[in-house]
Amino acid sequence: MQRLRRPPSEFAKFLDSTWNVTNTKVSEAIKVTYTFLPLPYHHEVWIPHLLVPFFIDECQFPSEAHPKCQFIDYMNYCFENMDAILGAKDTSMNALILQWTSQVANALTLTQAELLTVYNSAYDTHDSEDRVRLMYKYNAHHHISGTPFGFVNGVLLENFPSTAAQWTDVLFSVYNSQYRPPKAVAQDL
Fold it and tell me: Rounded to whole angstroms, how far apart are CA atoms 85 and 78?
């Protein structure tokens, strides 16, 4: 069965674009750090976040079973299915875990049984519950109360860019605002 490839998110398009200042991909020229905002009091939001450590570990410690890092794919899948998750307020936690892990397993070619281990502390080798609670505490400490939020060089973006072009504008704005010494001229030598 051939899988349909989803179009990349706007942020993924931005990271994959070539930055004409360095003639490299943007992803090679800047450092990007992701943090998720899990809300422990909303099970429909907490459930997708519990898989984040699984995908982080998959990237940091590739194995025969998981040779490919799928963190960005999972992040994009979450954003693409955000309305379904946020609309699951009336679905029981157990039913939503089964539904979500089935969908993610199908979309990313994984087994549901493997994903289900994350939701059982006796079998979770990723320490998902504690790691996701740390994500929540980190964000609460930094006064992040909603999503999406973006910081550039530690400064909160007033308007979160929603297109690759807007992210490129932010990149050039930051780049052009940085101090660069004046170019030497012939009489300076």
Answer: 8
Domain count, the chain: 2
24 and 99 inside one domain: no
155 falls within a domain: yes
* pLDDT band, very low/low/confident/very high, at 3 (cuts 50, 70, 90): very low
* Nearest-angstrom CA–CA distance, 89 and 27: 36
Is the Cβ–Cβ distance between 58 and 70 less than 8 Å?
yes
Q: Distance between CA 76 and CA 62 in Å, rounded?
A: 20
Number of H helices, E strands in the chain: 10, 4
Extract the tokens encoding 136.
Answer: 């929540």
Q: What is the pLDDT of residues 90-122, one digit of tens each?
A: 899 999 999 999 999 999 999 999 999 999 999
For residue 75, what are the domain limits?
A: 39-128
Residue 137 is assigned to a structural domain of this protein: no
